[in-house]
Amino acid sequence: MADGEPLIPPSAVDVDFSDVAWGADRTMSDFETGMWRMEEVQPKLRSPIVAVDVLDKPPDWERLVRAHEWASHMVPRIRMRVVEPTLRLGNPMWSVDPEFDLDYHLSRVRLPEPATFDHALRMCRHMATEPFDRARPPWSAMLIEGLDDGRAVYVVKTHHSITDGLGGIQLMTLLHSRRPEPSPDKPDRPAPLPEQMSGGGALFEQALDNVRSVPGRLGGLIRGAVRTAMTVVGDPVGSVTEVAGYANSIRRVVTPPPTTGSDLLRDRGLGRWFGVLEVSVDELRSAAHVAGGSLNDAYVAALLGGFRRYHESFGHDLETIPVGMPVSMRSASDPTGGNRFAAARFAGPVGERDPIARIKKVRTIILGLRQEPALGLLDSAAPILVRIPTVVLANWYLSQSTGLDLQASNVAGVPVPVYLAGARIERMFPFGPAPGCAVMATLVSHVGTCCIGVNLDTAAVTEPARFMSCLQESLDEIVELGRG
Predict the structure, then answer these.
(1) Structural contact between residues 153 and 129, judged by C-beta atoms closer than 8 angstroms
(2) Which active-site residues does the annotation give?
(3) Are 42 and 389 in contact, with CB atoms under 8 Å apart?
(4) Which residues contact 35 (CB under 8 A, 6 or more apart)?
(5) Per-residue pLDDT tens for 160-193?
(6) Phi-psi bin for 285: left (phi > 0), alpha (psi -120 to 50), beta?
(7) Is the separation of the CB atoms in 386 and 419 below 8 Å?
(8) Nearest 5 degrees, angle CA 325-CA 327-CA 332?
(9) d(Cα 360, Cα 369) in Å, to the nearest integer?
């Protein structure tokens, strides 16, 4: 989870593509395997990640097509489909699609006049709810033109098994340009060769990789056992205390938040609605500083205030709601792409009317969550969970996620102006997946602006426009703190 700071220094946007290895893992992790398979039996667990770029003008279409073709050379994952091993005796593997067709994945539409950004968002929403063709690479992109103010919208949808939010920003950073002009001298490489991988081939290749990795795994186990033994001998009391502390952390992590979901938001369905908010990074950070919190604390407090206002508009009072928050587990040494996050859950103090007190409470909660030793337990347990029958795993996961009224994510974005085929990207709104939760809110900072994308389950939030108005009022209240 980011905290409003830039993902990369400005100079890093000009990437040396000679050694790009985004999404280099050929085999899905156990966690990614679960996400890929569960939605087959439980459509409510569909997990697309959608990025909506607002452009100052329509980009050059032919140049945009060439840019996607070039990108598919530099990042082979763009051309890869998912192959399930025979009898699912192993995890799915990524294989270069022998029938890759860029025209299938990239499309262009023009809205009938007069068209607004809201009309474009509706198209993005419909695009997001359409299931992927699982026989093809699980991504699609669309250029939407015809907005009455002369702007355009570029939307990209990827399956969560490809990457998490931060990995998606890493990919977009690789592919955006610092200059509006073409870069004829940028490096290129041949397109990856098509592969005719079958289920049997995926099973054989994975089994061979497992055999090759046995010596390294055994060595790691032996070294770990030796270190553990030496630690126990040197400090037996401390070791027992550490084990007990970790056990307590596991209990806190796996126990649902000490609150029940809102009756007003209890239903779940397949309908989605997209809304956007924006505020300057400086304004939100200044407001947070007044309350002794971070930008992320102020952001979450604003969301919770919006929930309270929405419920009060229906005559409902509540003190807390169950909240989920993905926490990035990436380190500087981790490869780009893929999924590396843990899920934290807590009772959000919705009933706190004082915005300063709400920010302080949020800060105390989140600082405690980040220090939990067992925070990454779900990832550690993934090898076991993924072996459970998919229908059982999907129903269990859905029962956990439907217990959340809000999921809130914050991903640092690009701090400098970037371009797409000659058009400047003015805003970058993220829409994270909402598999089972009522509301998924995601913040990405883009050139000094916090772009907030809100993905609503319309079975839970039956009046989306009213809900967004309540969020805006709460955000304004938070920002006002920094102006006093």
Answers:
(1) no
(2) 160
(3) no
(4) 45, 47, 159, 160, 161, 339
(5) 888 766 677 777 766 788 899 988 888 889 999 9
(6) alpha
(7) no
(8) 160
(9) 14
